[in-house]
TrEMBL record:
The gene is LOC123068692. One of its GO terms (biological process) is vesicle budding from membrane. One of its GO terms (cellular component) is multivesicular body. Residues 197-208 have a biased composition (Low complexity). It comes from the Eukaryota. Residues 1-32, 179-228 are annotated as: Disordered. This is Charged multivesicular body protein 5.
């Protein structure tokens, strides 16, 4: 049967937006290259027109330049058309990508919703409240145990704080009285910080010998020397 009617030809998949965009970009690059070459030729013709004398030769150069300008405008129109097509394809591509992202987001949210529902079946708010109440009771019991273990046996519980403060003030007063009752000569001397000059020293007095004293113990009166 295949030999008689022939087999069906496999159809090629339709081009994607990215394929169409790449094809248009290649065409745009080709048009840009042609426009660049025309600009170079127009620059050369412009220089020739400036150097040529007015006459038939200059007019011929101008005619060639005008023809190149027409070609350039045609290519520029094609380039603008290709740019518009690329812009439209980009918009369609952005819309398609947005829809794909929305589909993925919806799928992820559905999966998460299903998982949360399964988890909520295993967790009950009543169990959490009961656990919190039990933890509170355990903490209270633990605090009571700590207070009981830290209690002192010899200190009465009915001690007034004001009585303790009065006793402390009386103890401080007794200590001040004892420090004031010590005599000054028993208290340690404080070193003076004053830099006083040293006491002057005098030569020792020469003792008077007894043979130079009279019968009353007084030194003898010096006698005037006699002149010869």
């Amino acid at each position: 049967m295949k030999k008689i009617f022939g087999a069906k030809k496999s159809r090629d998949p339709p081009p994607t937006i990215q394929d169409a965009t790449n094809q248009i970009n290649k065409r745009g690059e080709s048009v840009d290259e042609k426009i660049k070459k025309l600009d170079e030729e127009l620059t050369r013709y412009k220089e020739q027109i400036r150097k040529a004398r007015p006459g038939p030769s200059q007019e011929a150069i101008k005619a060639r330049a005008i023809r190149l300008l027409k070609h350039k405008r045609m290519y520029e129109e094609q380039r603008n058309m290709l740019y518009n097509q690329t812009y439209n394809l980009d918009q369609v591509g952005f819309a398609a990508d947005g829809l794909k992202d929305a589909q993925q987001t919806m799928g992820a949210m559905k999966a998460a919703n299903k998982e949360l529902k399964g988890m909520m079946k295993t967790v009950k708010i009543e169990d959490i409240d009961n656990m919190q109440d039990e933890m509170t009771d355990l903490m209270d019991v633990s605090n009571e145990i700590q207070e009981s273990l830290g209690r002192s046996y010899n200190i009465p519980d009915d001690v007034d704080e004001e009585d303790l403060m009065g006793e402390l003030d009386a103890l401080e007063a007794d200590m001040e009285f004892e420090s004031a009752a010590v005599p000054s000569y028993l208290q340690p001397d404080e070193e003076s910080d004053l830099n006083l000059p040293a006491a002057p020293t005098y030569p020792a007095a020469v003792p008077v010998s007894r043979h130079q004293e009279d019968e009353l113990g007084l030194p003898p009166v010096p006698r005037a020397s006699l002149r010869s």
